Amino acid sequence: MAGEVVVQDGRIARVDLDVNVVDVDGSTGPAVLDLGARWLVPGFIDLHVHGGGGYQVNGARAEDIAGLARFHAGHGTTGLLATAVAAAPDELVATMESIGAAAAAAGRRSGAARVLGAHLEGPFLSLGLPGAMDPEWFLDSDPALLRRLMLAGGGCLALMTVAPELAGARGLVEELVEAGVVVSLGHTAASYEVAAAAVRAGARSATHVFNAMVPFHHRAPGVLGAVLESERVSCELICDGVHVSPVAARLVHRLKGCDGIHLVTDAMAGAGMPDGVYRLGERAVRVGGGRAVSADGATLAGSTLTMDRAVANAVRMLGIPMQEAVAMASGNPARLLGLDDRRGAIAPGFDADLAVLDHELRARGTMVAGEWVVKPAAASETGA
Question: What is the C-alpha to C-alpha distance for residues 383 and 365, in angstroms, rounded to an integer?
Fold first, then answer.
């Protein structure tokens, strides 16, 4: 059955069900695109992106962040949080300035996913669980530095990963929540009691669940016990089959349900690039065979995942319908950021941020604010 989405002035003006036609009203008149048997879905929102297409966030200029946003737009992502790893305070301040500039320009620039803000993965993290980051730059809670970082970004800080067991972390969590920043628990050895207290204080997310967290134990459930138990907390899931076993991913889905998971890439500069050596912050990362690892090969160092592959992997690994996987990549992250009144769904009045997927769930087209960033071929050209 045929359906239609009408886009006007960057927003969705009308929706008929069973969509496979997009009708864009422009200054030269309406342009109708027949999508055939392909899927039209809400554009993906990636809350954890360190880089892609050869670009990385740390130390970047605003134009470099725009470059990684262009790369991810080619894979169905219409909005993202530029994510910085822990680094020297002055470098993080400069990075926040660049993210703020990129976010401010996002509304004026076409051809890329919108930079919705910043995700700071550090520096307030546990020394014992650095992952691929340099623990030299991990700090106990420092409200003065936090305020300096927030000021540098011009209000762009949207999400911050915090280890709740650090001295002063409770006050840090409360200050972030008061400022409207989503607090995510990660790179942490927190006990169940400490993590649960952070959730009560307002923490609402778990950064790359299972990774850089003390493992669950039946007598000491730890941070995993707290975040998997709580209905208030949504879990980041890197669904690449490398960071989390499909079995563990299915258990998370069984415990949290569709609404309790948001798919992320944790992508670094080597995503979409040939095998070779890239950087995550100041550290060298080897990319090969779809994996990104530290120079010594001992630690995963981000991923080469894209959001369309994350959605396809979720369908396959979790055994769920495509619509549910898409919700984990669009509606759920929009809700976590408080943007679900205008993004994350195909509905009248919502921003026209859309992705076109083929039968393998690969992105074949991406629309941001009513403009095709990647224009799909018409069904008559593809035979779809």
Answer: 16
| Number of Cβ within a 10 Å radius of residue 236 | 26
**CA–CA separation, 303 and 285 (whole Å):** 10
The 8-class DSSP code of residue 289 comes to T
Q: Cα-flanking dihedrals φ and ψ of residue 32, to 5°?
A: -100, 130
What the block records as the tokens of 104 is: 């401010």
Count other Cβ atoms within 10 Å, centred on residue 194. 20
Q: Is residue 140 among the annotated active site residues? A: no
Mean pLDDT over the full length of the chain: 94
What gap in Å lies between CA 81 and CA 99, rounded to an integer?
A: 9
Q: What is the pLDDT of residue 189?
A: 97
> How far apart are alpha carbons 321 and 317 in whole angstroms?
11
Helix locations, 232-306, DSSP H: 246-256
Indicate the pTM of the whole model: 0.96
Q: Residue type at 13?
A: A
In sequence order, the 6+-apart residues with CB closer than 8 A to the CB of 200 are none
Tokens found for residue 347: 């509905």
Task: Kindly name the residue from 64, 240, 266, 353 that is annotated as catalytic.
Answer: 266
Residue 30: Cβ-neighbour burial (10 angstroms; 0-12, 13-18, 19+): exposed
Nearest to 281 by CA among 124, 87, 96, 117: 87
Q: Which tokens is 200 given?
A: 């009560």
Token pair listed for 187: 């790179």
Spans in the chain with pLDDT lower than 50: 1, 27-29
In a 13 Å sphere around the CA of 332, the CA atoms on its Cβ side amount to: 27
User: What is the DSSP pairing of strand 363-368 with strand 354-357?
Assistant: antiparallel
pLDDT value for 134: 94
**Are 39 and 356 in contact, with CB atoms under 8 Å apart?**
yes
